[in-house]
From TrEMBL:
This is Outer membrane protein beta-barrel domain-containing protein. The keyword Acetylation does not apply. Keywords: Signal. Residues 43-152 form the Outer membrane protein beta-barrel domain. It comes from Aquimarina amphilecti. The keyword Signal applies.
Length: 178
């Protein structure tokens, strides 16, 4: 566990240094989004919410959470997942409307499994891990429709597909060199 926290500190330091060296005409945005998400191993459906800070038109980062309420995974058991992430995206604009991006970040997952007829017997697993994946967005005015694949590595490996919308909460044009 200590090794994992060491890598987390290194990643945060690297991201901080990267942000210092970003070009001097930054288009800063605060964005929020939401949408349904599917966990691919068991096929359960949840809801994702995210809040991202766009440092410029290419880099954004922020927290997101996905909650999957208890759902039957076989005739005896049901499963719930809470997936908490802090991710960064590097956006490559293919046109003025379409962008693609890799994503990477830190993940904390809580999984609970219980017998359907015996809710007093619950098995709980928790794990810190890493996210990887990719996504695409399509601009519709001030909104973005997005689709994203995300994998999680760690003790609780998993894969997700999320689709949704992102909207701008605030926008600020700043000339750092002035």
């Amino acid at each position: 566990m200590q090794v994992c926290f060491s890598y987390t500190k290194q990643l945060l330091l690297y991201l901080g240094l990267l942000l210092i060296h970003i070009n001097s005409n930054a288009q800063q945005e605060l964005m929020a989004g939401f949408g349904p998400s599917v966990e691919l191993e068991e096929g359960i459906i949840g809801v994702n919410a995210r809040l991202f800070y766009g440092v410029n038109e290419k880099i954004c980062f922020g927290p997101e959470a996905t909650f999957f309420p208890y759902q039957e995974i076989n005739s005896d058991y049901e499963l719930t997942i809470t997936d908490l992430n802090f991710n960064a995206h590097y956006i490559v604009e293919l046109s003025h409307k379409i962008g693609i991006y890799p994503l990477s970040g830190v993940n904390y997952t809580i999984e609970k499994e219980q017998l359907i007829n015996r809710t007093d017997e619950t098995k709980k697993d928790e794990s810190l891990g890493w996210n990887y994946g990719f996504g695409a967005h399509y601009r519709i005015g001030d909104l973005f429709a997005f689709a994203e694949y995300k994998g999680v590595t760690g003790k609780l490996n998993d894969e997700f597909i999320t689709v949704g919308v992102i909207f701008t909460l605030s926008k600020h044009k700043e000339n750092i060199g002035d």
